[in-house]
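Tokens for chain A. Residues wanted.
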């Protein structure tokens, strides 16, 4: 899917990228007047953008039951999968990468949060959802066994299902979410977005995973619009 970047000016169809005006920053420019130096204030505006699921440019489901498949999201019977919903447990996770090119150059990432919708969970208390920053490159042909299979020879994950800490994914999770209800969960991801935007680390997206046995969490696919939506909300401001 080719990502699209557009501003919704009030049309019926929501845009994958929305803009909001945030706080204002004032900087001075020098003017010489009657032998005195003055620094009039010029307004620079912080901006918040909201990236919908349509700005996701890479996505895959890693399933132990379908080790060579890239989108075995929900197993309805043995070996038969649908992709209308994400059913996560400790054998199935999802990889998601957002295209961040919409952020202009020379900005500082002030805050970033990811809205993750949850439809249902089991058990209703104590279920945990893990968000990991991915380290390993992954692409065409990705699945539970391999992080890519084309165009060259297949390349395996360090551990099946991209579970290798400090190799496939970061040493520690970005966040551990413990939902108290079936609703949208807000995860702070400022550090990850700053690492990617600044170029300190390549943007290889996130993994959303269940690590505990006997825990199941159901979520809509990111392209869903109703009733819940996946939103990556980023606030940035010009570097002074």
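Reply:
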């Amino acid at each position: 899917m080719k990502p699209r970047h557009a501003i919704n000016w009030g049309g019926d169809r929501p845009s994958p990228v929305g803009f909001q005006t945030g706080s204002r920053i004032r900087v001075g420019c020098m003017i010489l007047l009657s032998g005195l130096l003055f620094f009039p204030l010029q307004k620079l505006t912080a901006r918040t953008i909201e990236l919908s699921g349509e700005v996701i440019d890479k996505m895959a489901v890693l399933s132990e039951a379908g080790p060579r498949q890239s989108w075995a999201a929900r197993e309805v019977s043995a070996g038969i999968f649908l992709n209308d919903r994400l059913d996560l447990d400790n054998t199935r996770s999802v990889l998601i990468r957002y295209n961040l090119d919409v952020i202009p150059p020379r900005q500082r990432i002030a805050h970033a949060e990811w809205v993750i919708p949850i439809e249902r969970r089991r058990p209703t208390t104590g279920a945990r959802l893990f968000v990991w920053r991915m380290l390993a490159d992954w692409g065409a042909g990705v699945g539970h066994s391999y992080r890519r299979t084309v165009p060259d020879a297949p390349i395996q994950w360090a551990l099946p299902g991209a579970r290798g800490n400090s190799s496939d994914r970061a040493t520690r999770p970005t966040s551990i979410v413990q939902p108290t209800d079936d609703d949208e969960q807000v995860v702070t991801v400022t550090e990850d977005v700053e690492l990617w935007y600044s170029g300190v680390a390549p943007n290889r997206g996130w993994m959303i995973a269940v690590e505990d046995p006997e825990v199941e969490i159901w979520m809509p696919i990111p392209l869903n619009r109703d009733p819940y939506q996946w939103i990556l909300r980023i606030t940035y401001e010009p570097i002074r």
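The two ends are 36 Å apart (CA to CA). Confidence is low (pLDDT under 50) at residues 1-15, 19-42.
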